[in-house]
Design brief:
Length: 228
């Protein structure tokens, strides 16, 4: 018989698992890992004629994507164009970034799997006589290690030609040059920290769903059990 068990700790762990998976996925897909040095508008002369004043823009560069602005001189306006600069894996700008993409992708796949499974932990608390919370916590710990490896390798690729074109000639491994870090990099770091928090908190979720109070509710024949 399926017993739906909902506790504050198990629900919090489930929500955190989903948030972490989405945060890492969005960061990985974003082009806002590096914010390039400011570049003057190519329509500066037109702006001067019409008396306009346009701020220089800062292009952004991700692991496999980029965002830049294209000036339309005849309309004196600029549009932002975002998309992958690499058509396939081998065209990613640096071997270090290729390794980063692999490790991050593996970690994110694990996190997305755990996030999907966590939704069903209200009904299924064990699999093959093992706590599903402990199994998921272990997987989250492994995913966190993959994410750490990816984040450590990522700055080693700042010396590639693609990064230098965005960050200037002084950019090199672990040196940003004229660039600054974008929100995607910080989101990836925050998601990695939360991943390990989820891995630790999964043990609390397991304790909450297997407590004596839960067992008493089951013995009383209740199918829906909600506890604080």
């Amino acid at each position: 018989m399926c017993h739906v068990i909902v506790t504050c700790r198990s629900m919090l762990w489930t929500l955190l698992s989903i948030v972490v998976a989405f945060a890492e996925l969005i960061a990985f897909m974003s082009a806002d890992w590096l914010i390039g040095k400011a570049k003057p508008s190519s329509s500066e002369e037109v702006d001067n004629r019409v008396g306009g004043q346009q701020e220089p823009y800062r292009p952004t560069l991700g692991i496999y994507g980029r965002c830049t602005r294209i000036s339309h001189m005849q309309f004196s306006r600029r549009d932002t164009l975002c998309g992958p600069y690499a058509e396939n894996f081998s065209e990613i700008a640096s071997g270090f970034w290729q390794a980063t993409a692999i490790f991050l992708a593996m970690g994110i796949m694990i996190l997305c799997t755990v996030a999907f499974v966590s939704v069903f932990t209200m009904c299924v608390q064990s699999i093959m006589k093992k706590s599903i919370f402990n199994v998921c916590g272990l997987l989250q710990g492994i995913a966190g290690l993959f994410l750490i490896l990816g984040l450590i390798l990522y700055p080693a690729g700042w010396g590639c030609q693609k990064a230098i074109s965005y960050c200037g000639p002084y950019a090199s491994a672990y040196k940003l040059g004229d660039c600054s870090l974008g929100w995607a990099f910080y989101t990836a770091i925050g998601g990695t920290v939360l991943t390990f928090i989820c891995a630790v908190f999964s043990a609390q979720a397991e304790i909450a769903t297997s407590s004596d109070k839960v067992q008493e509710e089951i013995e009383e024949g209740k199918n829906l059990i909600c506890l604080l």
